[in-house]
């Protein structure tokens, strides 16, 4: 049974008032709030188990290490990876994509090779590839989008060729909530030698992810967007591929032996985890995934898609409101502008009413340019949001519109 009140009670932050009004938190695309069990596990880590991992022979170090490696196993199961070596802990999605871009790029990208990204990517799935292309004199190709922000699959097919070494795209576009045609893009790419990286930052918290069924080479996501702490993320990579890639950073933990003559690198996954990992946040991620598992990702998906449908219908009835990214295939976000108003003004008035939304480019400047705008207001949903909160958003927008006109 999906009991929204029971779920909300698990998130202490939601009970507070902002500007004298009950908080309506609709900025979940940026980061999600944390359930009590995640807050408690972080507290427990520092109160009872804290010590650096993989290094000590003593009790606390062994305990921290065990919890960290258990967290890796929890992530493996959650995304159905084959082995825990395929789960690399990173700082977040950005760090995961940079790791892949550097390390895969070092090994596999040379002059005139081509990398394809979608037009509607977050900057973190554009800039690392641009940097790689600059370093290696390779070319970045962009899958165009239609007027709604949907990637043009037929155009993608034309871009794909012998020179394509990697296709990197978001599972869900963060600025619109559009779910990209992941399966179709993968199927097409598999007809070539190119590898596939999926930026799952806006998908992992909303949909069941099975990396084996998807058959992608890399899948990246951030813990903080799925109810865990900040400072932790995951790069999933196929073992055979990760094994051929050089380390991203050098330092402690990623080596077997070091001398001035020769350094031998550690096996997977530690080869890619130089330095002290954020083991506390990794444990918090496992706890967040436990929360998602016990709530049921299918229940979450169903609830959020009902919220989305309700929000789109309700907001569409507002005179002068335009939704960017209209599509039947969407999840958990509505991006909009209101005629003759600025998105910052709408966001600020909503804040005065206790409602938190995102305003601006959403780190997706090419998408904004494509729509011919400089930003939008984005309301994005999580498991704890309610229909009543969408009513409050609606009423807030009407009020803001009146004040600004
Ligand atoms: N990719 C997408 C689609 C995102 O929405 C975000 C964050 O909003 C990122 C990447 C970057 O995530 P992080 O800042 O956690 O590294």
Alpha carbon gap, first and last residue: 44 Å
CATH architecture of the largest domain: 3-Layer(aba) Sandwich
Strand order in space, largest sheet: 4-10-9-8-7-5-6
State the shape.
globular
Number of strands: 17
Major sheet characteristics? 7 strands, mixed
Radius of gyration: 22 Å
Domains, number: 2
Average pLDDT number: 98
Helix content: 40-55%
Secondary structure class reads: alpha/beta
Which small-molecule ligands are present, each listed once? pyridoxal-5'-phosphate
* Named CATH topology of the largest domain: Aspartate Aminotransferase, domain 2
The CATH superfamily of the largest domain is identified as Type I PLP-dependent aspartate aminotransferase-like (Major domain)
Low-confidence stretches: none
Number of helices: 14
Which CATH class of the largest domain is shown?
A: Alpha Beta
In terms of DSSP E residues, the strand content is 15-25%
Spell out the key features of this protein:
Aspartate Aminotransferase, domain 1; binds pyridoxal-5'-phosphate; 7-stranded mixed sheet; Aspartate Aminotransferase, domain 2; alpha/beta; 405 residues; globular
In short:
The protein contains 14 helices and 17 strands.
How is this structure best described in words?
The chain has 405 residues and is an alpha/beta fold. The chain has two domains: 4-30 and 296-404, Aspartate Aminotransferase, domain 1 (Alpha-Beta Complex), CATH 3.90.1150; 39-293, Type I PLP-dependent aspartate aminotransferase-like (Major domain) (Aspartate Aminotransferase, domain 2, 3-Layer(aba) Sandwich), CATH 3.40.640. It contains 14 helices and 17 strands. It has helices at residues 4-9, 36-49, 59-79, 93-108, 127-136, 153-159, 182-189, 211-214, 239-244, 279-295, 297-316, 343-352, 365-371, 387-404; strands spanning 17-18, 21-22, 24-25, 87-90, 114-118, 139-143, 164-170, 195-199, 218-222, 233-237, 255-258, 263-265, 321-324, 333-338, 355-356, 358-360, 376-380. The strands form five sheets. Strands 4-10-9-8-7-5-6 form a seven-stranded mixed sheet, with helices on both faces. It has a four-stranded antiparallel sheet with strand order 13-14-17-16, with helices on one face. A hairpin with a 4-residue loop joins strand 11 and strand 12. Helix 2 packs antiparallel against helix 10, helix 3 (59-79) packs across helix 10 and helix 12 packs across helix 14. It is globular, with a radius of gyration of 22 Å. The chain starts with a helix and ends with a helix. The mean pLDDT is 98. It binds pyridoxal-5'-phosphate (PLP).
